[in-house]
Amino acid sequence: MTKAIGRKMWTISLMVFLLVFSNSCTFVELNLFPKEAPLRETVLMGEGREKVVLLDISGFLSTSSATSLLGLGSRASVVERVRRVLDRASKDSHVRALLLRINSPGGTVTASDIIFHEVSQSAERHHWPVVACLMGVAASGGYYVALSADSIVAHPTSLTGAVGVIALKLDIQGLLRKVGVKVEVYKSGKEKDTWFPFRPSTPDEKKHIQEMIRSFSQRFFELVQERRKLSNVNMERIESGEVFAAELAKKLGLVDRLGYLEDAFNLAKKLAGVEKAKLVAYLPPGKAEATIYSGPPRAPKGWIDLLNSGEAAYLWIP
Predict the structure, then answer these.
(1) CATH code at position 243
(2) Which of 157, 175, 247, 252 sits most deeply, having the most CB atoms within 10 A of its CB?
(3) Which residues of the chain form beta strands (DSSP E)?
(4) All residues at 6 or more sequence positions from 123 whose CB lies less than 8 Å from its CB, including other chains
């Protein structure tokens, strides 16, 4: 009897404790990718009222958000981050130029084209000169984005070029056969399952895929020719998809000069017609130690994203 009363009192005490705790305490939500906070302006170098905005374009270029391993949250895509920075810059009358810091092997055709479009339109609308600074790798879609700039500065050890398109398709039919798995596909048209990894492509499908690749490639080639005014000989080599070291890229006309971020910053000020300016970045709160080289966390290898997306890409795969 005494034990029963004791258990009852313990249960009542626990319920009262939980009731009081739930009404008086704050619960903390754990999320691997916090919600996007308002961007905070951080001065990276320089002085004065006028500003040059550093726009970081790095990693695999995609319109898809990065999802956490547990699926509890997501981080904004490169395209989203670019648009947020441009929107913030457009509200500041002291912004006089953009400095693109590019460290990317490229990404999907659509993401690369959207970033190029957003930068070009913002620059035209606000009369901002744009300088691109190519870091370790600024190839394929990374270079496509750089074409939005009025002048391109390449780090002396940068790799760039890789102009063209690639698309990947897995064929796991042999593997499935070994483990005794068979996939049945029901479709409305003979090429509806062209990209499925359960069989090889037919000759007609390969032809149609190559036509798509040719169309996207031609768009890239024409943009290079329009923006860089290259000779036919140089364009022929560039269209091979070759990747170039910075010095050779300069000789071919893909970049204007070799230099560092500080050189690109000084060039942006010169093009904007200002002697003094601050180089600023719009960053999430908490990055008090930001420098001109600070960037987002390392992204997965681009070809892994490409296999998952099934899209054509302006991408260099080392």
Answers:
(1) 3.90.226.10
(2) 252
(3) 40-46, 51-58, 66-67, 74-75, 95-104, 106-108, 130-139, 151-154, 159-161, 243-245, 257-258, 278-283, 313-315
(4) 98, 129, 130, 148
Does some domain include residue 59? yes
- Name the nearest CA neighbour of 152 among 253, 235, 51: 253
Neighbour count for residue 299 (Cβ, 10 Å): 19
Region of 230 please: left (phi>0), alpha (psi -120 to 50) or beta: beta
pLDDT at 237 over 50: yes
Total number of domains in the chain:
1
Q: Which amino acid is at 102?
A: I
Residue 22 CA to residue 19 CA, distance in Å, equals 5
Q: Between 185 and 14, whose confidence is greater?
A: 185
Q: Which residues on adjacent β-strands are paired with residue 103?
A: 58
Q: How many angstroms from the chain centroid is the CA of residue 242?
A: 22
Structure tokens at 192: 């509806």
CA distances from 109 to 140, 215, 311 (A): 10, 11, 8
Q: Report the mean per-residue pLDDT for the chain.
A: 84
Q: What is the CA radius of gyration of the chain?
A: 26
Instruction: Say what the pLDDT of residue 56 is.
Output: 95
Q: Catalytic residue numbers?
A: 140, 192
Instruction: Read off the pLDDT of residues 268-301 as tens digits, 9 standing for 90 and up.
Output: 999 999 999 999 999 877 655 578 887 765 554 5
Structural domain containing residue 48: 34-166+238-315
pLDDT grade for 68, boundaries at 50, 70 and 90: very low
Task: For residue 97, give both structure tokens.
Answer: 């130029």
Q: How many residues does the chain have?
A: 318
